[in-house]
Write a structure and sequence with these properties.
The chain is α/β, with parallel strands linked by helices and 593 residues long. It has two domains: 313 residues, ABC transporter transmembrane region fold (Up-down Bundle), CATH 1.20.1560.10; 137 residues, P-loop containing nucleotide triphosphate hydrolases (Rossmann fold, 3-Layer(aba) Sandwich). 64% of the residues lie in helices and 9% in strands. Helix 3 runs antiparallel to helix 12 and helix 8 runs antiparallel to helix 11. The two termini are 51 Å apart. The N terminus is likely disordered.
Length: 593
C-alpha cells in the first residue's frame, strides 16, 4: 500500500507553498494595510530627516538666524515623535499578524493530524510531528513577521534613498552602488547553501525531540535497566550533531552579514573619495554631501538586511515545504462527508475480507467472513493471529477494499468514518489515559456526564472501590499516562470510559489482560445486564471467561480455523483444546502453590 505523505519539500512549487499563507493574508488584509502604511510612512520620515539636516548645515554656512535653526530642531523632534507612534503601530499590526498566522497554521496542523489514519502514524515519529509545530512554525512566523518588515524596509528605503541620491548627484550615486553586484551574487550563492543546511538541522531537531519524548515516557523502564548513562550519551551525541548542524547554518549567516557590510563600506569609501572632490570643486554643497552620506547609511541597512531577509525567507520556505508535505498527507480511508448523522445500524458483517499492513509480505487477515449481531462474541488465537487487526478494521483505523466490511448491509466505505466510529466504543490492551483527574478520564467521550453516571460505569468496571481508596477519589490526578495506577486499574478505567459512551458496539481488544480472572468474571457478569441488545467483541485467551459467549471465533495465522460455542470448540477444535488444557494445568499448579 503506497505511502500518502512522501513529498519532497524542495519539489513543491512556490505557488503551492504560498497557498498555505494566502488565506491569512486575504483575511487580515486591512490589518496588514494599516501596518504597512505605518511602516512606509516611517521610512518616508526617515528620508525627510536628511533633507532637514541638509538645510540646517547649509544655513550654518551662510549665517542664517538662530530662529530658523530652532524651527528645524522642532521639526526633527516632531518627525521623531510621529515615527515613534507609527513604529508601535506597524509592530503591533504586522508582527501581531505573524503570531495570528502561526496560531492558524498550528491549529490546521493539529486538525489535520486528527483526521489521518493509523497507517500514517506508523510512518511518522511523534518527534518529527512536534518539530513541525515548534521549529518550523517559528521559522515561518519570523519570515512573515520581522522578515516581511525588513524586506519592505529594504525595498522602500533602497528605492527612495537611491532616488534622493540621484537627485543630489547621479555620478556619485553610480559610484556608491558599484559594489552592489557583489552582494547580489554572493547572497544568491549562500541562500542555496542555507536551504540544504537548514533542512538538515530541522531533521536532526526532529530526531532529538523524538528521542527526548520516548526517553521521558519510558523513564521507569530506563531506570529499571540502569540505562541512564547510555541514554545520556546518546542524547549528547544527538545534541552535538544538532550543534554542528546549527554551526554550519551560522557559517552561512556569518558570511551574509559581512558581505553586506563590505558592500556598504566600499560604497562609503567611494563617496568619501569622489564626493569630497565634488565638495571641494563646488559641484555640491556641504549640506548635500552630508545628506548623501546619511542616505548611504540608510541604504547600508537594506543592503545588510538583504542577507538576513534572504536567510529568513529561505528558512521560512524550507519549513513551509515541510509543513506542506505534512498537510498534503491524506488518509487512505475513503473520504465521505460527515453530516453528523447517527447511523441506525449495529450488525456488522465481513465478507471474504483480506488485509495486509503496508510493507508486509503476508496478509494479517485472509478471506475472513463473519457476522456479528447483538450478543457477546469471544475472539481467541495465538499472538499475531489477526485478532487485534480485526478489531482495528471494524473500528475503521485502516482501509479495506469495497464490499468487504458492512454495517447493517451498507458498505462501510460508503459511510463517513466518524459516523461509524460514533457507533463503536473501544478498549485496547494498552489503556491510554491523560494527565488529568480520574473522573475526567472516564468522562472523556461524554464530557457532560454527571458524577452519578461516572460512578455507575466505574462500578460495572469493578474499579469504583479502587478509586475511592485514593486520597482524592474521583478527583485524583493520575499523572502522565496514568503512571500512578496499576495496569489493571488503568484497563478498568478505560473500560468504564467506553461504557459511559453507551454505544451499540463494544470492542474489548484484550482490554482486561491485566485484570485477575475473578475480577474479569465479575466485570463480565455486570456487563451481561448492561450490554443487552449490543454487539460485544471480547478478545481474550482466557477460555473460562468466554464460556458464556454467544460464539467463539478461533484465529490462526490470519484465518478463522474454528468457530462455535464453548462446548463445541472443546469437542472439535484442536487449538482450542490445547489452549484449554494448558490453562487447566496452570490453574492446578496455582492451586497447589
Amino acid at each position: 500500500m503506497p505511502s500518502s505523505d512522501q513529498h519532497a519539500p524542495g519539489a513543491v512549487p512556490l505557488a503551492a507553498l504560498l497557498s498555505l499563507l494566502r488565506p491569512f493574508f486575504r483575511r487580515y488584509r486591512f490589518r496588514l494595510l494599516i501596518g504597512f502604511s505605518a511602516l512606509i510612512t516611517v521610512d518616508i520620515l526617515q528620508l525627510i530627516t536628511p533633507r532637514v539636516i541638509k538645510y540646517g548645515i547649509d544655513a550654518l554656512t551662510i549665517g542664517t538666524t538662530q530662529n530658523y535653526l530652532v524651527r528645524l530642531a522642532w521639526l526633527l523632534l516632531l518627525l521623531a515623535a510621529i515615527s515613534l507612534a507609527l513604529r508601535f503601530c506597524w509592530r503591533y499590526m504586522i508582527v501581531g499578524f505573524s503570531r495570528i498566522l502561526e496560531h492558524g497554521i498550528r491549529c490546521r496542523i493539529f486538525d489535520h493530524l486528527l483526521e489521518l489514519d493509523a497507517a500514517f502514524f506508523e510512518r511518522r515519529t511523534v518527534g518529527d510531528l512536534m518539530a513541525h509545530s515548534t521549529n518550523d512554525l517559528a521559522a515561518i512566523q519570523l519570515a512573515c513577521g520581522i522578515g516581511l518588515v525588513s524586506a519592505t524596509d529594504a525595498v522602500v528605503l533602497s528605492a527612495a534613498a537611491i532616488g534622493f541620491m540621484l537627485y543630489i548627484h547621479p555620478q556619485l550615486t553610480v559610484a556608491a552602488l558599484l559594489p552592489m553586484p557583489l552582494l547580489i551574487i554572493g547572497t544568491k550563492f549562500l541562500s542555496a547553501k542555507l536551504h540544504i543546511r537548514f533542512t538538515r538541522v530541522q531533521e536532526i531537531f526532529s530526531e532529538m525531540t523524538e528521542f527526548s519524548r520516548s526517553s521521558i515516557i519510558s523513564i521507569r523502564l530506563l531506570k529499571a535497566y540502569t540505562m541512564e548513562a547510555a541514554h545520556t550519551e546518546r542524547f549528547d551525541r544527538l545534541g552535538r550533531k544538532y550543534v554542528r548542524g546549527n554551526l554550519r547554518v551560522a557559517t552561512i549567516h556569518g558570511l551574509m552579514f559581512p558581505l553586506a557590510t563590505l558592500a556598504g563600506s566600499l560604497g562609503m569609501l567611494l563617496i568619501l573619495w569622489y564626493g569630497g572632490h565634488l565638495v571641494i570643486e563646488g559641484a555640491i554643497t556641504l549640506g548635500d554631501f552630508v545628506a548623501f552620506i546619511t542616505y548611504l547609511y540608510l541604504l547600508i541597512w537594506p543592503m545588510m538586511a538583504i542577507g538576513w531577509v534572504a536567510s529568513l525567507v529561505q528558512r521560512g520556505l524550507t519549513s513551509l515545504g515541510r509543513i506542506h508535505s505534512l498537510l498534503a498527507s491524506r488518509s487512505l480511508l475513503p473520504e465521505v462527508e460527515d453530516d453528523g448523522q447517527i447511523l441506525p445500524g449495529r450488525d456488522i458483517a465481513l465478507n471474504d475480507l483480506t488485509f495486509s499492513y503496508p510493507g508486509a509480505k503476508t496478509p494479517a487477515l485472509a478471506a475472513v467472513s463473519l457476522t456479528f449481531s447483538p450478543g457477546l462474541y469471544g475472539i481467541i488465537g495465538r499472538t499475531g493471529s489477526g485478532k487485534s487487526t480485526l478489531c482495528k478494521l471494524i473500528l475503521r483505523l485502516y482501509p479495506v477494499v469495497d464490499g468487504a466490511l458492512f454495517l447493517d448491509d451498507c458498505d462501510m466505505n460508503n459511510l463517513p468514518v466518524a459516523a461509524v466510529q460514533r457507533r463503536i466504543a473501544y478498549v485496547s490492551q494498552e489503556a491510554m489515559l491523560f494527565s488529568d483527574s480520574i473522573a475526567a478520564n472516564i468522562a472523556l467521550g461524554k464530557e457532560e456526564a454527571t458524577r452519578e453516571e461516572v460512578i455507575a460505569v466505574a462500578k460495572i468496571a469493578a474499579v469504583h472501590d479502587d478509586i475511592m481508596a485514593l486520597a482524592e477519589g474521583y478527583g485524583t490526578r493520575i499523572g502522565e499516562r496514568g503512571v500512578r495506577l496499576s495496569g489493571g486499574q488503568k484497563q478498568r478505567i478505560a473500560l468504564a470510559r467506553a461504557l459511559l459512551c453507551d454505544r451499540p458496539v463494544l470492542i474489548i481488544d484484550d482490554g482486561l489482560s491485566a485484570v485477575d480472572v475473578d475480577t474479569e468474571e465479575q466485570i463480565l457478569a455486570a456487563l451481561a445486564g448492561h450490554l443487552r441488545d449490543r454487539v460485544v467483541l471480547l478478545v481474550s485467551n482466557r477460555l473460562k471467561t468466554l464460556a458464556a459467549a454467544k460464539e467463539i471465533i478461533v484465529f490462526d495465522e490470519g484465518r478463522i480455523v474454528a468457530k462455535g460455542s464453548h462446548s463445541a470448540m472443546l469437542a472439535t477444535s484442536h487449538l482450542y483444546q490445547a489452549m484449554a488444557a494448558k490453562q487447566q494445568l496452570g490453574e492446578r499448579d496455582n492451586a497447589v502453590i
